[in-house]
Amino acid sequence: MSQAIDSHTTSSGSSGSSGQPNPDRNADYMGIERGTRTYTRAVLAMLAAGLATFNGLYCTQALLPTMTEDLGITPTQSALTVSATTGMLALCIVPASILSEKFGRGRVLFISLSLAIVVGMILPLVPNITALILLRGLQGALLAGTPAVAMTWLSEEIHPKDIGHAMGIYIAGNTVGGLMGRMIPAGLLEVTHWQNALLGSSVAALIFGVVMVILLPRQRLFQPKKISLKHEVAAMVGHWKNPRLALLFATAFLGMGTFVSLYNYLGFRMIDQFGLSEVLVGAVFIMYLAGTWSSTQAAALRDKIGAGPTVIFLSITMIVSMAAMAINNLWVTLAALFIFTAAFFALHSSASGWIGIIATKDRAEASSMYLFCYYVGSSVIGWLSGFVFTHASWLAFIGWLLLLLLGVLSISASLAKLAKTTK
């Protein structure tokens, strides 16, 4: 079926990316421009890809308190159903990106999502937490092809002046997908067991995956290349030698690690301290809509005040809102969570767009390295934070997350300084 997808042409309006350049394109063609029908199809396809991927990636997060009680395990163990997925996704992002250099972005997108959705359908059948963690790890490995390729697809195919806008919509799809990955199973918990709630989430991912396949345009600017381990390693090492890229990679690691840590364990506090039910805790994830809005506005903010001041402002906003969550009041916590979520996704959208601008060659390797750090941060820091949450007070937990965010602010300041000196 992937071959059929890649056989369509742009003029037909059918989807797919063959991994072959179009010999008939104009020499001065620089990419898909905003305002065209093809641009609309492209951003909607990537929106659907984000919805499907992040719906599957975080489908157990809202279920952690219920799984902890039902399976008789610790919060740290239940959180491994998230960390195993993000960890395996991180490990497989680079290989998936390399494969897309030879076989095409569209084919990797299709195969990655299809197999991950199949695994998602099997999740409700597993007998214990060990099997669930292992299967979630496999699902993460299969999902890796989507984020590894989506950012690169946009960087290659969208006109440079419109990359920020398109990337913002893709990140918005990530936020809504993450929201649905929490809200769908949390809502289903009211009427069924957590296993069936997982099945409902997988069905939603299937629908979004089909939409992506139908809408995705054929690539015109992709140039397939022979895979060489030596070249790939050299490309990634070269990206790390670029100070701005290295700092963006570090921002992804610390920022995402802090974000996932907060959302992994905030549900336990909502239940134990504020007395919320599981379904109300699931509703807290509606805060992701703040990120949906902010990620699409990040490009406008960057254009207005500059890339450097933008990341500094967003980092400070994350610190202030995180500190407010130390206050023992439900409404203050919710307001702070809303602001924190908006700031984080705006920062992620800004950093993602910046990667595509700074890395003028070997963009797939640059994007995959950014995402590798992003999901390693999610997995490793998200897991380590569980020990702080389990063995220390809530204030100590917030203090730990603030320490990580101070690292993000320091990196942002360095990025701003480098942005000035490289103009």
UniProtKB/TrEMBL annotation:
Origin superkingdom: Bacteria
Coiled-coil ranges (or none): none
Gene Ontology CC: plasma membrane
Pfam families according to UniProt: MFS_1 (PF07690)
Main location: membrane
SUPFAM superfamilies for this protein: MFS general substrate transporter
Keyword Cell inner membrane: no
Domain spans labelled Major facilitator superfamily (MFS) profile: 38-423
Residue stretches spanning the membrane: 39-58, 78-96, 108-127, 133-154, 166-185, 197-216, 245-268, 274-293, 305-327, 333-357, 369-388, 394-416
Localization per record: Cell membrane
Region of interest (Disordered), residue spans: 1-30
Membrane topology: Multi-pass membrane protein
Compositionally biased tracts (Polar residues): 1-10
Family that this chain belongs to: Belongs to the major facilitator superfamily.
The protein's name: Transporter
